[in-house]
Amino acid sequence: MADKESKVDNSKERDSKVRDREIRDREIRVDRSTMNRSDTTGNRQRSRSASSRPQSATAVQRTRTSTGRPLDKEKTRGDHPAKGTQSRTVRPSNAVHTSGAKSNSGVKRSDSKTRSKTYKKTNKKKNNVRLNPKTVIPAAIILGILLALVITLIMRASLLKVHQISQDYNMGDTFDIKNFFEASSVDTYIECDSNDFVPDKLGKYKVKFTVRRGKLSSRKTAKINVVDEVNPYISGPDEIEVKVGQDINWSDYYTVTDADPDIQSKLTSVKDLDTGKARAVNATLTVTDWAGNTASKNITVVVTDGDVAN
C-alpha cells in the first residue's frame, strides 16, 4: 500500500511540475512577443526621424554600432529548474536589433529609390531646358532684326534732331520756319510750305515741316503761338471840311492798317462832333484791334455853310 501511495504522489508531483513548466513557457513567449513589438515600433520611429533630417558621420556611426550591441543578461525560466530540464535563455536584444536592422535596410532602400526618382526628375528638367537649334536660329534672326531696327531709329532721331528757338509768330509778318526751329547739325535742313500755315486769328496753331539729311527725312509737327504786337496805323489828312448838319463817316476820310480784318469798322472819335453851325473843331480819332493794340490821330474838322471842296 505504501508503494502505491508513493507512486501516486510522484506522478502528481511530476504532473504539477509539467504544468508549472508549461505556464512559464507561455509567460516567456508572451513577454518576448510584447518586447519585439515595442522595440520594432521604436526602431521604426527612430528610422523615420533619422531619415527626415540629415545626420553627421558620428551619428551614422553611432547608429550602426548600436545595432551590434552585446546581448542582455540571460533570463532563466526560474530560480529552481526541474530535474531533467535545461535552463533556457531569452535574448530579446537579438530580436530587437534584428528587427531594427531590417527596418534600417528598408529605410536605406526607400532612400535609394527616392534619390533615383529625384535624379530622374532633375535629368528630365535639364533635358527640357536644352535649346532646340530649329527654334533658336529663327529667334536669333528676329532678335537681330529688331536690334538693328532700334539702332536705326535711335541714329535717325539723333541725326534729324531739331530744337525750337521761338514760339510766337506775330500776325502779319512773313512766315519762315527757320525763325522758329533750328537743326542740330550743319548738314540738316528744314523745309516748310508757307501755304500750310495761314492763321486767321490769334492763338496756337499746328505747323508741319520736314527735316532732311541726305537720304534721311522725317516729318514733324509743332505748335506756334500766333500773337499781334503791332499797333494799328491810321492814315488820312490832318484837316477835313464838311457841311453844316452833315453826318461824318470817318472811314470815308481815313484808312486803318492792321492784322485785324475788322479794324476799319472800329475807327471812331473820342467825342461826338456837332456840325450844327459853321466853325472849326479839333477832334481825336482812335481805334483798338483784337489784341488790344491801339492807335490815335488828332485832326481838325472845318464846318462850313458853303460849298465843300472835293
TrEMBL record:
<keyword id="KW-1133">Transmembrane helix</keyword>
<feature type="compositionally biased region" description="Basic residues">
    <location>
        <begin position="115"/>
        <end position="127"/>
    </location>
</feature>
<keyword id="KW-0472">Membrane</keyword>
<feature type="compositionally biased region" description="Polar residues">
    <location>
        <begin position="58"/>
        <end position="68"/>
    </location>
</feature>
<dbReference type="InterPro" id="IPR013783">
    <property type="entry name" value="Ig-like_fold"/>
</dbReference>
<feature type="compositionally biased region" description="Basic and acidic residues">
    <location>
        <begin position="70"/>
        <end position="82"/>
    </location>
</feature>
<feature type="region of interest" description="Disordered">
    <location>
        <begin position="1"/>
        <end position="127"/>
    </location>
</feature>
<feature type="compositionally biased region" description="Low complexity">
    <location>
        <begin position="48"/>
        <end position="57"/>
    </location>
</feature>
<feature type="transmembrane region" description="Helical">
    <location>
        <begin position="136"/>
        <end position="155"/>
    </location>
</feature>
<keyword id="KW-0812">Transmembrane</keyword>
<feature type="compositionally biased region" description="Polar residues">
    <location>
        <begin position="84"/>
        <end position="107"/>
    </location>
</feature>
<feature type="compositionally biased region" description="Basic and acidic residues">
    <location>
        <begin position="1"/>
        <end position="34"/>
    </location>
</feature>
<protein>
    <submittedName>
        <fullName>Uncharacterized protein</fullName>
    </submittedName>
</protein>
